[in-house]
Amino acid sequence: MIPPRQSATRKHRAADWKLDSPNFICRLKIISKGEKCLIRLEDRNTGAHFATCPIDSYPSIAVENVEDSTRYFVIRVQNDNGQQAFLGIGFNDRSDSFDFNVALQDHFKYLKQAKQIEQEAKQTANDPLQQQQPKLDLRFKEGQTIKINLKSSLPGEEGYRHMEHTMIYFIST
Known about the structure:
By secondary structure, the protein is α+β, with helices and mostly antiparallel strands. It has 2 helices and 7 strands.
């Protein structure tokens, strides 16, 4: 169990947790589709759903860094009835916690850029000077070809990473 936060202004501390005895070891997935992003915790052996953490923004109360480590976080999980609980999660490997952070940052960075592009497109559509300029023809010419080499990143192949051994610590109330 991890102790509750000491005050509203103080962050959780991983040093206060019983790090040698996690309550649950699971697989963590970050699922991003459109504007929605969530963390899904699953049993690492069976894949059974354990908990879900919907994320509206990052950083936010849904996912908080702890004060004293880059490998531990507190997430707010929520069930279908809207009930919420806070769980402490930790990664054995610092690179997994880095990947976790980057995945969340990338999702919200993409959303911000998409909104900016949409706003710029609206401004361009209303600008009479932009409408008068000739459009560029970027289509392939007759007989023109390109070659694309893609590196596969399917499960079991190089480049694919699971965050299999995420440790879960429950917050005592």
